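Design review, sub-item: ligand-bound model
Attendees: FS, YL, KQ
YL presented the inputs for the NAP complex:
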Amino acid sequence: MDLAGIDQRLTDRQSMRCRQTEEALPVRTTDIEGALTVRTNHIGGALSVLTAGIEGALLVITAECAACDEKHGSSSPVTLDPYRSASPPSHGGGAAPHHGGLTMAPAHATYAITGATGRLGGRIARRLADAGIEQTLLARTPARAPRLAGATPAPGAYDDHEALVRALRETDRVLMVSAAESPDRLHAHRTFVDAAAEAGVAHLVYISFYAAAPEATFTLARDHWHTEQHIRASGIPFTFLRDNLYADFMPALVGADGAIRGPAGDGRAAVVAQDDIADAAVAVLRGPHPHVGRTYELTGPEALTLTDVARILTAVGGRPVSYVPETIEEAYASRAAFGAADWQLDAWVSTYTAIADGSLATVTTAIPDLTGHPAAPLEQVLRTASGPPAG
Ligand SMILES: NC(=O)c1ccc[n+]([C@@H]2O[C@H](COP(=O)([O-])OP(=O)(O)OC[C@H]3O[C@@H](n4cnc5c(N)ncnc54)[C@H](OP(=O)(O)O)[C@@H]3O)[C@@H](O)[C@H]2O)c1
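KQ shared the predicted structure:
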C-alpha cells in the first residue's frame, strides 16, 4: 500500500458529507506514520484508519470513528469514498456502513494569505491570483487589501483570535508572513498559530528568518525561532521559509549622506530577492506534500560584504554609496537620536553584527531547488526595481 500517495490525495481539503444528516464536514489530514489520521472539526475526533488502499479509481479507507460511535451508538467502521460522484466502493472488510456511511470528495484546496497589503505577501497573493487560484486575504484593514481576481479580503489581525478562527475555518493552506516588528510580535504570532490550529488548517507556510535560533545574533531571529517552536507544538503540518536579509531592502540601509553605517566589519550576507521568496512560497503552497515538516534557508546566489552592496548600489543607482564600518558602541550612539526603544535599537544594531559574525553568510540552493530557476543576484533585483533606463 502506497501510504505516501494516499496522503498526497488527502492533504487537499476534501468535503466529507454525512449521508444521514447531509451535513458537510470539514476534514483535514495529518501525516501518516503507519497510521493515517483523518480529523473532522464536526465531531472533533480522529478517525483511526483500519485499512487504506486503492480500488480502481477509488481510494478506499475503512476507519473507526470513536466520536460518532458515542453520538450514534454504532460501533461500525466507516467507509470514506474520495469521489463524491462515484458509487460507494466495496471495501471488502464486510463492515456495515456507519449511519449510512460518510462520503469524501476531492475539492480544490483553499488558500489564505497574510501580509497582502505589504511587499512580500502582496507578491505571493498576485502570483496565486495570476494562476487563477482563489484566496482569502487576511488583513488588519481589509479595505486596503489588493483587488485581485478570486481574492476575498477578511479581517485578520494576528492578535484577533476569533476573527482568525472564523476566517480560517474553511482553509487548507495558509501563508503566514511575520508581523511588523513590535514588542508583542511573538504573542501576536502565537495567537495566529493557535487560531489556525483551532480552525483545522491543513498546512501552514511560515515566513521565518534565516538561521533562526534562540540565541541568534540578530535579535529578531529569536522571535522567529520561538514562533517556529509554537507552530511545531501546534501539530499543524508546516513548512518554514527562513529568509536571509531582503535584497530589495538594501537601498534602505543608505543614510542621507550616501553612507551605509553599521558594525558589520567585512562580514557577508547572502541577501535574497522578495520575488524569489514569493516564487518559493507559491511552489510550497501549491504542492505542500513534499515540504511538510521541512525548513528551507532562502538566500540569494552570493554572499556580499556591505562594501560589495555599496558598490552595486552605486553602479545601479548612479549616486555614490559607501560603507562606513562602525564599532558597536558607535552604532548605538549614532542611532540614539531616533529615540527608539531598546529592543528596536538592539534589532537594528544586531542586523549588522549578524553580518559581521558570519551568521548570514552561507549561500544555499533552496531558491533554485524550490522554484526551478536561479536566485537573482542583488544587481538584478535593484535593476528590476528601478525599471528600464530612461530614454
Ligand atoms: N528578511 C528581511 O530582511 C526583513 C526585512 C524587513 C522585514 N522583514 C519581515 O518580513 C515581513 C514581510 O516583509 P514585507 O517587506 O512584506 O513587509 P511589509 O511590506 O511591511 O508588509 C508587512 C505585512 O504584514 C502585515 N502585518 C504586519 N503586522 C501585522 C499584524 N500584527 N497582523 C496582521 N497583519 C500584519 C502588514 O499589514 P498592514 O498593511 O496592516 O500593516 C503588511 O501587509 C515583515 O513584516 C517583517 O516581519 C524581514
